[in-house]
Design a protein that fits this description.
The complex is a heterodimer of chains A (272) and B (801). Chain A has 272 residues and is of the alpha/beta class. Chain A is 40% helix and 24% strand. In chain A, the strands form three sheets. A six-stranded mixed β-sheet of chain A has the order 6-5-4-7-8-11, sandwiched between helices. In chain A, strands 1-3-2 form a three-stranded antiparallel β-sheet. In chain A, helix 2 (76-93) links the parallel strand 4 and strand 5. In chain A, helix 2 (76-93) packs antiparallel against helix 3 (119-129) and helix 4 runs parallel beside helix 5. The longest helix of chain A has 25 residues, at 216-240. Chain B has six domains: 1-92, no CATH class; 95-249 and 681-712, von Willebrand factor, type A domain (Rossmann fold, 3-Layer(aba) Sandwich); 255-350, Sandwich (Immunoglobulin-like), CATH 2.60.40.10; 353-569, 3-Layer(aba) Sandwich (Rossmann fold); 584-673, Immunoglobulins (Immunoglobulin-like, Sandwich), CATH 2.60.40.10; 742-801. Helix content of chain B is 30%, strand content 29%. In chain B, the strands form nine sheets. Chain B has an eight-stranded mixed β-sheet with strand order 20-19-21-22-28-27-26-24, with helices on both faces. In chain B, strands 8-7-4-9-10-36 form a six-stranded mixed β-sheet, sandwiched between helices. In chain B, helix 3 runs antiparallel to helix 16, helix 4 runs antiparallel to helix 5 and helix 6 (183-196) packs parallel to helix 8 (221-237). The longest helix of chain B is centred in the last third of the chain and has 55 residues, at 743-797. Classes of the chains: A alpha/beta (272), B alpha/beta (801). The interface between A and B is large, with 43 and 30 residues.
């Protein structure tokens, strides 16, 4: 069973595409003997690749993803879960394969891609069973994931990237190096970007960071600048690795952000 | 604005309010509490908070402390402003720019300033303050001197004097008076002097007073607001400093009134002398001895006790054995203000009141005479032990033109038909000189002639215009009776409270309807509403008009009513009282008396023994004098032929002796008393002076002069230190709010405020405003440049255009 997703790569598949002249080292199985009989020259048959499209949903389940401010309807993790479910449904609807990997300190669970419609139930079950825990170690987990993926795929990474950014970038780079099309959907809470707090507050870290006693009116501006610099840094790194990067604010409905993401992907393919 | 840099002495008008500076610890306490009380919030992006705090820790600490300092400064400024700070120049360092100072010295010399406490009078303490101001002044300064009093113009030194010894000598000559204080006139004169000076000149007004409440806080709203307006105007033109020498609150008792029950006494008949003593004070009773002296002899001494804030009357019955002028004096035991403990009364005593009865009808039988019932009512008592008040003489109408009216105290005309002009003029002069005139009507009276001759005299002798005869048949009840109303007129005083006084039962069958002239009073009316008895003043005398007859032709009054006899006596007593009414004067008022054409001179001897010759003056001279005095004159409407002698304003309380002649030698006594309002020392001190009077005027109030206590520079009402502090306080409040909202913007505002305040201090508010705007623009531009530059560098780093 083949999916409707059209690959841009040419390989050795069933549907003929064109001939090319044989060169040393080519697989002799694809030599077109009929052409050889007519022209006494070796030509190889080339076919349009109609392989199944494979997509990996990578979910960061560290403690920081459980954060939900009063301004947000759901936590970052729940927001990512919903996005994964929606995209999985879309991929499976195209008869393409989708898989799921959850990771926090390390790679937790791995559900291989499948094109079966019932696969969506499995994805949903894993998403439901997943609980946030532990600090983020995104880099190592992505490295591990990269070694396990034997087929080039679209890898969509859902994370707040509250990690050592160099390590995380290395993991993403490894994935890209292995030929995967990597997309980073960075999930953030509105309070993390806007920092709307007014009263003096003790901010308790979710991943074991030191508590911060802060007067938000005094530090708010500096924090916002710091966070914006972080976002800019992430964006800059993704751009340098030719990765797609998109912010998913948990207070913005997916009906707004996902169409925008898909539209951006369409443009991306058009250019590619 | 400080004219130049001068060594300054700093102080506070209300230093105890500096305790409010303790409030400045509140932000520190809140800060400490704040460190322990905060809410907890789980947060995923703590690493960015930590990083932001690490990077901005120094700036945050600076913000924190700056905000704390601003908040503490706000509370300190509150206490600072409430304490009314002032800055003064030290002696000898004033006006180092070389500008001469024009001093206007004002001292209250009213009676209340004679109050003695601690061995010194208020006036002396005030004078000492002014002497110190003069002594401490620089060479080149000029001085003017004014007093606050009522009888004389306030300006003592009108031309600016530069020689200190002259000014000190003038101050030394000043003495407190027995007068009230005319504050408005003194302040108006001060303002005129200020207006006359060069604007560039530094002017200082030093006002010394005990701020006696009736003078400085009069009940009249218009006077009160006038004083306030004048003080504000003075304070806007000069440095005004008020020295309150009132000292501690003083309770004071005084005799506010001394009267006899009759303006003239008769030998052998007891007269009631009544003194009213009032205790001005808020607590305690005024325990005193009160004495009555007659002709400088002690006749009675009694202890008295008057509750605080109350007054009490004391009466003595005294019988004068001899006629003539007598002096009566009530004395009170000593207190802090001894000068108001004496009250004087000049009382003329006559052997009898001489009454001339003039009948206007042909006499057949004695009882037919128009004066028959009057003679009967005034006939002496057969009992020689009960001498009568009146000695009556009856003459026919025809002798009116030739009779020597000067011998009589009162004239009664009963049913006189017509009066010729010469007779009317004689009557007018008689009344103007203080005589009493009683007019009774009857069938013979020609209303037209009366209206023409008596109504048209220059002084208006007739109290009303005679209209027409009203008959009993015009009344629904067939007769008229008296309606005494509320017995408010003095002639009805004897009848008040007597149920069967006979007035309401007196039947009148005819009267002449009379329309009262303006200035006349209706003493008694008929039940028809028409006047029955009318009175009016004319000159020193009084005129009484009875609109019915004084015999039995028109009324049953003399025959059937018990009220006739006492009413005749009361009318005579009332009519003659005008002659002596001008004998009681107040300090500051002149003594005057009408004299006839033969009187060539008079001599007035005061209680201090000083004598002054007085010449009779003509009407034109009197008018000019009244115009100079700026006040109404009591005899403005008199005829031209009347002459008068008048003294200057009386300045000392006591008995004045006026001797007229030659040719005839007449001696009369006049009593002059103080204004008892000056005796109220209760509310003048201690505590703040009349703050409502000074509301809105930033005038420093001092109680003493100290070395260095020269007129204030920085507490100038147009540029007060406390007002500046309040302005800065308001600015800091706004800055604090802005800093809490946007610290960067708040810092710019703080810099602008500080620049404005400093520039305003040295160069005035205009300079401060300009400097503030410039500073604000510079700081804002610098901040914008920093922010824009940083963003641009960041954009370049991220590869954005």
């Amino acid at each position: 069973m083949t999916g409707r997703h059209r690959s841009s790569q040419r390989g050795f598949s069933a549907e003929f595409a064109e001939h090319r002249e044989y060169t040393a080292g080519d697989d002799v199985r694809y030599v077109d003997w009929k052409v050889y009989g007519r022209s006494d020259r070796y030509y190889l048959k080339q076919f349009e690749d109609e392989t199944n499209f494979s997509c990996w949903m990578v979910l960061d389940t560290s403690e920081s993803m459980s954060y939900r401010s009063t301004a947000a309807p759901v936590s970052k993790l729940d927001h990512a879960r919903r996005a994964i479910a929606a995209l999985s449904w879309l991929v499976l609807g195209q008869r393409d394969a989708v898989g799921l990997a959850t990771l926090s300190g390390a790679l937790d669970r791995l559900l291989p891609p499948s094109t079966q419609p019932s696969h969506l139930d499995q994805i949903g079950r894993i998403l439901q069973e997943t609980t946030p825990r532990g600090p983020t170690a995104l880099g190592a987990a992505l490295e591990d994931l990269a070694t396990r993926l034997d087929r080039r795929s679209l890898v969509i990474c859902f994370s707040d990237l509250f990690d050592d950014l160099d390590s995380a970038t290395a993991g993403l780079e490894h994935l890209a190096w292995r030929g995967h099309d990597v997309v980073v959907l960075q999930v953030i809470d509105p309070a993390e970007e806007d920092f709307p707090f007014e009263e003096p507050t003790r901010f308790v870290g979710l991943e074991g960071e030191t508590d911060q006693v802060v007067e938000p009116r005094a530090l708010g501006e500096a924090y916002r600048a710091e966070f914006q610099q972080f976002l800019d840094d992430v964006s800059h790194r993704c751009r340098s690795l030719h990765l797609d990067h998109l912010l998913l604010r948990s207070d913005v409905p997916l009906t707004v952000t996902l169409p925008r993401f898909l539209e951006a992907r369409l443009h991306h393919r058009g250019r590619g | 604005m400080l004219p130049s840099w001068t060594p300054l002495a700093f102080g506070f008008a209300s230093p105890w309010l500096l305790l409010g500076a303790c409030l400045a610890t509140i932000p520190v306490v809140l800060h400490l509490l704040f460190r322990r009380q905060h809410r907890e919030e789980p947060f995923a992006a703590n690493r960015f908070l930590a990083e932001a705090a690490r990077k901005h820790s120094r700036r945050l600490r600076f913000q924190h402390w700056l905000l704390l300092v601003v908040r503490m400064a706000i509370l300190l400024l509150v206490a600072f402003s409430l304490a009314r700070p002032f800055v003064e120049a030290l002696p000898g360092d004033l006006d180092s720019d070389g500008t001469a100072v024009h001093h206007i010295l004002i001292i209250d010399s009213s009676l209340s300033m004679r109050h003695t406490a601690g061995g010194s009078r208020r006036f002396d303490r005030g004078r000492a303050i002014l002497e110190k101001i003069v002594t401490a002044a620089r060479e080149g300064d000029t001085f003017r001197l004014l007093t606050i009093r009522a009888a004389r113009p306030p300006v003592i030194i009108g031309q600016a004097a530069g020689r200190k010894p002259d000014v000190l000598a003038e101050l030394e000559r000043l003495q407190p008076t027995w007068e009230a204080a005319d504050v408005v006139t003194a302040l108006q004169s001060t303002l005129s002097l200020l207006d006359a000076r060069e604007l560039s000149e530094h002017q200082r007004v030093s006002l010394v007073s005990d701020l006696q409440p009736t003078d400085w806080q009069p009940e009249g709203e218009s006077v009160h607001s006038r004083i306030h307006t004048l003080l504000a105007a003075i304070a806007s033109k000069a440095d005004l400093v008020v020295y309150d020498v009132g000292g501690s609150a003083a309770a004071n008792s005084t005799i506010v009134d001394l009267q006899s029950d009759s303006p003239v006494a008769v030998t052998g008949i007891p007269v009631v002398l009544r003194a009213t003593v009032k205790h001005f004070g808020t607590s305690g009773a005024g325990e005193r001895q009160i004495e009555l002296h007659v002709d400088d002899r002690l006749v009675s001494r009694r202890p008295i006790s008057v509750a605080a804030g109350r007054s009490i009357d004391f009466e003595w019955s005294h019988r004068f054995a001899t006629g003539g002028e007598h002096r009566v004096e009530a004395r009170l035991g000593g207190d802090g203000l001894a000068d108001d403990n004496r009250r004087f009364l000049s009382l003329p005593v006559r052997d009898r009141l001489q009454v001339l009865l003039v009948g206007g009808r042909y006499v057949g039988r004695p009882e037919d005479a128009a004066t028959f019932y009057l003679e009967t009512a005034l006939a002496p008592d057969p009992d020689p032990a009960r001498p009568g008040l009146v000695e009556a003489t009856t003459i026919p109408e025809r002798r009116l033109a030739t009779e020597d009216l000067g011998r009589y105290d009162c004239l009664v005309l009963s049913d006189i038909g017509r009066l010729v002009r010469s007779e009317a003029d004689r009557l007018a002069r008689f009344v103007a000189d203080g005589g009493g005139l009683i007019l009774g009507l009857g069938d013979t009276v020609d209303p037209g002639s009366w209206n023409q001759q008596l109504g048209n005299t220059s002084a208006g002798l007739l109290p009303g215009r005679l209209d027409r005869i009203v008959e009993a048949s015009d009344s629904t009840s067939g007769a008229f009776v008296f309606d005494p109303g509320n017995y408010t007129h003095p002639v009805l005083g004897e009848f008040r409270g007597l149920a069967d006084n006979g007035l309401a039962t007196t039947v009148t069958i005819r009267y002449l309807r009379t329309r009262p002239h303006p200035g006349s009073n209706v003493a008694l009316a008929f039940d028809s509403g028409d006047p029955a008895i009318l009175t009016r003043r004319m000159g020193h005398g009084r005129v009484v008009l009875v609109t019915t007859s004084l015999d039995d032709r028109w009324t049953t009054w003399p025959v059937l009513s018990a009220s006739y006899l006492p009413m005749v006596h009361e009318l005579i007593r009332f009519a003659v009282s005008g002659r002596w009414s001008a004998r009681q004067r107040q300090v500051g008022e002149p003594i005057f008396r009408r004299v006839d054409a033969t009187t060539s001179a008079g001599t007035l001897t005061g209680p201090d023994g000083s004598s002054h010759s007085l010449d009779p003056t003509t009407p034109r001279e009197r008018t000019a004098r009244a115009r100079r005095a700026g006040a109404g004159h009591p005899e403005k409407r008199d005829e031209e032929s009347v002459r008068e002698i008048a003294s200057d304003e009386t300045l000392v309380p006591g008995i004045y002796r006026l001797e007229l002649g030659p040719p005839s030698r007449v001696i009369e006594l006049f009593s002059v008393n103080i204004d008892p309002a000056e005796s109220d020392l209760s509310a003048s001190s201690p505590g703040p002076p009349p703050t409502d009077l000074l509301s809105g005027i930033d005038v420093p109030i001092r109680v003493r002069w100290q070395p260095g206590d020269v007129p204030v520079l920085s507490d100038h009402p147009g540029n007060p230190l406390s007002r500046r502090a309040l302005a800065i306080l308001l600015g800091l409040l706004m800055v604090e709010l802005i800093m809490a909202w946007r610290f960067r913007v708040g810092t710019i505002c703080l810099a602008v405020l500080v620049t404005t305040a400093l520039a305003g201090w040295w160069g005035g508010w205009l300079s401060g405003g300009v400097a503030g705007l410039l500073a604000g623009g510079l700081f804002a531009a610098r901040d914008w440049r920093n922010r824009y530059g940083r963003h641009r560098r960041a954009a370049q780093t991220h590869g954005q255009p």
